[in-house]
Amino acid sequence: MRVAVPDRSTMDKKPFRRGVSPPALIPYLVAGDPDLATTRRYLRLAASSGVFAVELGVPFSDPTADGPVIQEAARRSLRHETALSELLDWLGTIPPEELPPLYLMTYFNLFHHMGVESFCKKARSTGRVAGVVIPDLSFEDSRDYRPLFRSFGINLVGFVSPTTPVDRARRIVREARGFVYYVGLMGTTGASLSITPAVRDMVGQLKQWTALPVCLGFGVNEPRMAREILGFADGVIVGSRLVREEEDPGLWEKTFLEFVAECRKAEPRQ
Amino acid sequence: MSRESAAVEKHREAPRKGSPSLPDYRGYFGEFGGRFVSETLMPALLELEEAFRSAWRDSSFRKEFYGMLAEYSGRPTPLYLAESLSREMGGARIWLKREDLNHTGAHKITNAVGQALLARRMGKSRLIAETGAGQHGVATATVAAKLGFSCQIYMGSEDVRRQALNVFRMKLLGATVSPVDLGGRTLKDAISEALRDWSRTVGETHYLLGTAFGPHPFPLMVRTFQSVIGQEARRQFLRRVGALPEALVACVGGGSNAIGLFHPFVKDAGVRMYGVEAGGISISPGLHAARFAGGSVGVLQGTRTYVLQNPDGQIENTHSVSAGLDYSAVGPELAYYRNAGRIVFDSVGDDEALEAFRTLSRTEGIIPALESSHAVAYALRLARTLPRESNILVNLSGRGDKDVMEVSRILEGKGERL
């Protein structure tokens, strides 16, 4: 079967160049919470605010890496049966200029159930998906799937955590595509991050090994913390803090724009 | 040479282990298994695997393990011929491997002892565990008390309700019991919560997973510890009967009592193996826990295996009268042997299990756990189809004291009185 490939994939909009590109803000949204019309509105605002990417969460029944806020949002979204394949169809109906570069985040079973290859084909044909973030696809198990994602041009983001030994981190970073997701704390999403020297050192180390943006996430719960992170990391991922407001568009937009404003003050740096 | 020792001698040559190459170095049994967990947990799993392999090579560790099983848990457990039950069924002879006579009342203590000794060797100070029926929670709380660990048990709030006695036992043993109010409020949700705890506390905590499930090396490690069941049973059978049984029967939740019994017999081609899943009310979504009958291959809580899921890939909730079988996925090694045609799986529903619960109590004076009652029920079906001289060995994985209140409630609901 021939796959229709649009001329311009959203992923090519802004290739990252350290020291030149603006620091990256990556908000996380749960698709379909409270409904897809609201998700679309949030995506449009994110696109017009010039974020590096949006991590679009696809709800899964058993989110083992997520804390209570994102669990609850996933539950709300699942009430109207948000599903991966239908979500791709839906994304395909949105004009590309209304979308930021998208990284779909969910647990491996949803890709596995759809079939990784079917997913890649469909994601590619919509031209709206830059990559995927899969917290429970370990570096070891991802070996079986990396070639597939690559052959379809879907970036598989690499995770590094505070427990990752240095030589392992190096191997993960080498295989990562799109960006490197440094989980700044031990635990689940929505805890509270503290920016320790160890966190700064690890980010510094990772930056030496890769030209991809090294982004810090988990527990970033206020705009000033995001800005502080952008003082040493290439990017910052904001999840639970925004998801908490998803049911109230006014509040979500206000909070999101606070993060955008604060992050704009950060300078590109080496 | 006596008949018994000749039989022991004859079978000594037969290979005693399952495929030594399984799982492979990445934790796969064929296409099943793996380590589908977050990066935060991966280094801990690699460390655990290394620690387990080195401990198991160390004869002093094995000696400590078997010593504690003998002195603390009362192993070996007896092999018992259920004569009255067999007579009443009028078919094959039914034998019970009396795992219910272990300390704390089920086979779960064996794995808890093994992993707790390993955790101590690794310098951990805290144990966490999930539990369904509460037997694994009690076993973990027990070894934590004995070996001086702090202990936290995650348990679905539905299970907390129906297994109140075990909740009290865990608290008495000094453990904290955290009810989990998510999803179906049963075992699956307790595992997710335990995984979340572990990713916060992985430095000082060992996650004492209770069944042959989850990410590698848990399926390997739990099977290794629980294989003492099958090793003993095989030896006992050869001594008593002078031959191996025609069939083995075990209930399957995650599958630790089943793989523990089956594994030492895997290469004995004449021994048929039957795994019994919970048929619940009926084999339709949400009303059962028969993964092989109603499931498909998926990835849940660290492993690739048969999973109950809806057309979108969302995990389905389950139902069984027995909390220990009430789970959406099954151990990867059992999935492998099932597809290889080595183990046959079938299911027994709530009512048939309750009937067997009462039959075994009445005929033998042994009150089985509701989990084990599923295996007993299936053995009764099987016995009727086999000649009188053949032998069926059932893993009586636990005792039923924990279940009597729930059974009484159910019988009352049906308007039945004893």
From TrEMBL, chain A:
<keyword id="KW-0057">Aromatic amino acid biosynthesis</keyword>
<feature type="active site" description="Proton acceptor">
    <location>
        <position position="66"/>
    </location>
</feature>
<dbReference type="Pfam" id="PF00290">
    <property type="entry name" value="Trp_syntA"/>
</dbReference>
<dbReference type="GO" id="GO:0004834">
    <property type="term" value="F:tryptophan synthase activity"/>
</dbReference>
<keyword id="KW-0456">Lyase</keyword>
<keyword id="KW-0028">Amino-acid biosynthesis</keyword>
<comment type="function">
    <text>The alpha subunit is responsible for the aldol cleavage of indoleglycerol phosphate to indole and glyceraldehyde 3-phosphate.</text>
</comment>
<dbReference type="GO" id="GO:0005829">
    <property type="term" value="C:cytosol"/>
</dbReference>
<keyword id="KW-0822">Tryptophan biosynthesis</keyword>
<comment type="pathway">
    <text>Amino-acid biosynthesis; L-tryptophan biosynthesis; L-tryptophan from chorismate: step 5/5.</text>
</comment>
<dbReference type="InterPro" id="IPR011060">
    <property type="entry name" value="RibuloseP-bd_barrel"/>
</dbReference>
<comment type="similarity">
    <text>Belongs to the TrpA family.</text>
</comment>
<dbReference type="InterPro" id="IPR013785">
    <property type="entry name" value="Aldolase_TIM"/>
</dbReference>
<feature type="active site" description="Proton acceptor">
    <location>
        <position position="55"/>
    </location>
</feature>
<dbReference type="InterPro" id="IPR002028">
    <property type="entry name" value="Trp_synthase_suA"/>
</dbReference>
<comment type="subunit">
    <text>Tetramer of two alpha and two beta chains.</text>
</comment>
<protein>
    <recommendedName>
        <fullName>Tryptophan synthase alpha chain</fullName>
        <ecNumber>4.2.1.20</ecNumber>
    </recommendedName>
</protein>
Automatic annotation (TrEMBL), chain B:
<keyword id="KW-0028">Amino-acid biosynthesis</keyword>
<dbReference type="GO" id="GO:0004834">
    <property type="term" value="F:tryptophan synthase activity"/>
</dbReference>
<keyword id="KW-0822">Tryptophan biosynthesis</keyword>
<keyword id="KW-0456">Lyase</keyword>
<feature type="domain" description="Tryptophan synthase beta chain-like PALP">
    <location>
        <begin position="73"/>
        <end position="398"/>
    </location>
</feature>
<comment type="function">
    <text>The beta subunit is responsible for the synthesis of L-tryptophan from indole and L-serine.</text>
</comment>
<dbReference type="GO" id="GO:0005737">
    <property type="term" value="C:cytoplasm"/>
</dbReference>
<keyword id="KW-0057">Aromatic amino acid biosynthesis</keyword>
<dbReference type="InterPro" id="IPR023026">
    <property type="entry name" value="Trp_synth_beta/beta-like"/>
</dbReference>
<dbReference type="InterPro" id="IPR036052">
    <property type="entry name" value="TrpB-like_PALP_sf"/>
</dbReference>
<feature type="compositionally biased region" description="Basic and acidic residues">
    <location>
        <begin position="1"/>
        <end position="16"/>
    </location>
</feature>
<dbReference type="InterPro" id="IPR006654">
    <property type="entry name" value="Trp_synth_beta"/>
</dbReference>
<dbReference type="InterPro" id="IPR001926">
    <property type="entry name" value="TrpB-like_PALP"/>
</dbReference>
<protein>
    <recommendedName>
        <fullName>Tryptophan synthase beta chain</fullName>
        <ecNumber>4.2.1.20</ecNumber>
    </recommendedName>
</protein>
<comment type="pathway">
    <text>Amino-acid biosynthesis; L-tryptophan biosynthesis; L-tryptophan from chorismate: step 5/5.</text>
</comment>
<feature type="region of interest" description="Disordered">
    <location>
        <begin position="1"/>
        <end position="20"/>
    </location>
</feature>
<comment type="similarity">
    <text>Belongs to the TrpB family.</text>
</comment>
<keyword id="KW-0663">Pyridoxal phosphate</keyword>
<dbReference type="Pfam" id="PF00291">
    <property type="entry name" value="PALP"/>
</dbReference>
<feature type="modified residue" description="N6-(pyridoxal phosphate)lysine">
    <location>
        <position position="108"/>
    </location>
</feature>
<comment type="subunit">
    <text>Tetramer of two alpha and two beta chains.</text>
</comment>
